[in-house]
């Protein structure tokens, strides 16, 4: 994942007026100013996860790999000049905040873990072989994706045996549920379903066996107070009104930010705090090459320029490769003819098309 910078848009509240004097105003108070600024990762550190803003809007945390020292979490207070490595988070991926902004959950070493951001050891909560996102409710329940091809599970933040939170629906040929996020009531939550022709953001609740599709998209979404959904449309971040009582979208979606990073694993490179601070990363996805690998480990590149490729699959006759290619409109299926050296697009809709065979 190649990030040029984090961009932060902070809605800064005006100073509170004395309540007794507020009624004396002849005109409404001005709207709070919007401040935008960028922050860069520490020198020698490559971010490997979306930047996650704390619920109180005071800190940004992300996973990163250092040229010396490997992978860890890095946290930066908004007012600070640099991000600092979080001790005891070696190998950490996909961090997410507790609702009180004091702790962070993350995945490392095949486990779901948590750590107090003020310091202390990391604590193992349960097994998670290859996690893809978690959400921490105000009642102390964590919903998480334990691997890349499963439904979601739920577990107490204090630890214990996980239970199923969602089940993959065979009717939609669902491949995975990922990137949960709790709504304000602490019972309902959003998640991304990856499925042929049915990839999108769904909403359900703890203990429920049903879910509802909110919007077709191929990446993570977030709720933003006081009532909107942020989601990706290609490389553009969109905002649409969302009713948390009726659990439905309303109005029309509007763009918030453009040229966001085209990230791996449908993670979506943005997050928003309860206070209205939005943080996101810009830039393009890291390019990849298709190569032949022989039985001795020899590598021979195919005659195809590097690109944002994923999930390649070889045809039975060995003459073609079908793969996902991500561009500014989303993920689409392409076919590469090895002998002719041609790459042809096969899907054209706006939804995410993944995992071709």
N-end to C-end Cα span: 25 Å
Give unreliable regions as ranges: 11-24
Q: What's the shape?
A: globular
* Strands, total number: 32
Beta strand %: 35-45%
Q: What's the main sheet like?
A: 5 strands, antiparallel
CATH topology of the largest domain: Neuraminidase
Provide mean pLDDT, rounded.
Answer: 86
Radius of gyration: 21 Å
Under the CATH scheme, the architecture of the largest domain is: 6 Propeller
Q: Can you identify the CATH superfamily of the largest domain? A: TolB, C-terminal domain
Structural class: mainly beta
Number of domains: 2
Helix content: under 10%
Per CATH, the class of the largest domain reads Mainly Beta
Number of helices: 1
Briefly say what this structure is.
The chain is an all-beta fold and 357 residues long. The chain has 1 helix and 32 strands.
Describe the structure.
With 357 residues, the protein is mostly beta strands. The protein folds into two domains: 5-282, TolB, C-terminal domain (Neuraminidase), CATH 2.120.10; 291-345, no CATH class. It has one helix and 32 strands. Strands 3, 4, 5, 6 and 7 form a five-stranded antiparallel beta sheet that branches. It is globular. 37% of the residues are buried.
Descriptive labels:
5-stranded antiparallel beta sheet, 2 domains, mainly beta, single chain, Neuraminidase, 357 residues, 1% helix
């Amino acid at each position: 994942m190649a990030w040029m910078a984090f961009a932060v848009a902070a809605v800064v509240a005006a100073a509170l007026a004395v309540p007794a004097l507020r009624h004396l105003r002849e005109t409404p108070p001005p709207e709070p100013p919007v401040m935008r600024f960028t922050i860069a990762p520490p020198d020698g550190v490559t971010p490997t996860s979306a930047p996650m803003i704390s619920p109180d809007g005071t800190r940004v945390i992300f996973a990163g790999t250092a040229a010396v020292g490997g992978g860890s979490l890095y946290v930066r207070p908004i007012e600070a000049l640099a991000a600092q490595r979080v001790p005891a988070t070696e190998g950490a991926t996909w961090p997410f905040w507790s609702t009180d902004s004091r702790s962070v959950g993350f995945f490392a070493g095949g486990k779901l873990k948590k750590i107090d951001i003020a310091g202390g050891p990391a604590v193992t909560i349960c097994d998670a072989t290859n996690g893809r996102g978690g959400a921490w409710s105000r009642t102390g329940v964590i919903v998480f994706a334990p691997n890349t091809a499963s439904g979601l599970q739920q577990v107490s933040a204090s630890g214990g045996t996980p239970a199923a939170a969602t089940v993959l629906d065979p009717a939609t040929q669902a491949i995975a549920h990922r990137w949960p996020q709790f709504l304000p009531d602490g019972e309902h939550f959003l998640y991304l379903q990856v499925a042929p022709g049915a990839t999108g953001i769904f909403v359900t609740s703890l203990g429920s066996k049903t879910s509802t599709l909110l919007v077709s998209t191929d990446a993570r979404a977030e709720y933003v107070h006081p009532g909107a959904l942020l989601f990706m449309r290609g490389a553009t971040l969109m905002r649409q009104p969302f009713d948390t009582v009726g659990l439905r979208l309303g109005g029309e979606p509007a763009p918030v930010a453009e040229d966001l990073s085209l990230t791996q694993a449908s993670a979506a490179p943005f997050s928003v705090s309860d206070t209205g601070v939005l943080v996101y990363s810009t830039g393009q996805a890291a390019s990849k090459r298709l190569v032949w690998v022989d039985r001795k480990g020899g590598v021979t590149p195919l005659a195809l320029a590097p690109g944002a490729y994923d999930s390649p699959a070889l045809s039975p006759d060995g003459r073609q490769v079908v793969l996902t290619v991500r561009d500014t409109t989303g993920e689409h299926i392409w076919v590469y003819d090895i002998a002719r050296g041609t790459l042809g697009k096969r899907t054209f809709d706006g939804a995410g098309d993944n995992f071709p065979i």
